[in-house]
């Protein structure tokens, strides 16, 4: 229907992805949610949209998500790329196979759906893509080696994409969460944050909501830290 805006969220069954789907629905978006657990399918329906049970590592499953949005609403205005958890080990003990899994989980999770939605957004003359990345993309931690390495690549990809498609009014930005309440809580991690608390999934969702809005229409190719001040690079 005319005037409706549509948002898709991948890996949206729980945590930050689910919070983003709920916030965008509250903002008035029709939502489609992909998750491997089935929770995303249930959440999408609960929010008045739809969901797909599948993987963001499957081009076929992602096509079911994008096709489902086009069939229902004829457009895709926002894509939020969330992710699961990839392999972790001491840096020289990570196998080739696990490095590839990390890239699948933390980099290609954004590349695959972006390929599908970009032509749709070009025809519409606009759209927004938001990738949930990590605060440690630029200050890497040995705790999350495959995440930090793959998401440093995602930052480069995002800048190239933003430069390439700015003329089509398509924006891409990364949100860089720090310690968020969807992760296990430890006193050490909490105390390492200048604000002395974990962030909430809802705070990440609020940042995504802003980046998806007209208020952020002049922001593209950026990495927005939402980490309570734990990282300091400029």
TrEMBL record:
PANTHER family: 3-OXOACYL-(ACYL-CARRIER-PROTEIN) REDUCTASE, NADPH-DEPENDENT REDUCTASE BACG. Belongs to the short-chain dehydrogenases/reductases (SDR) family. This is SDR family oxidoreductase.
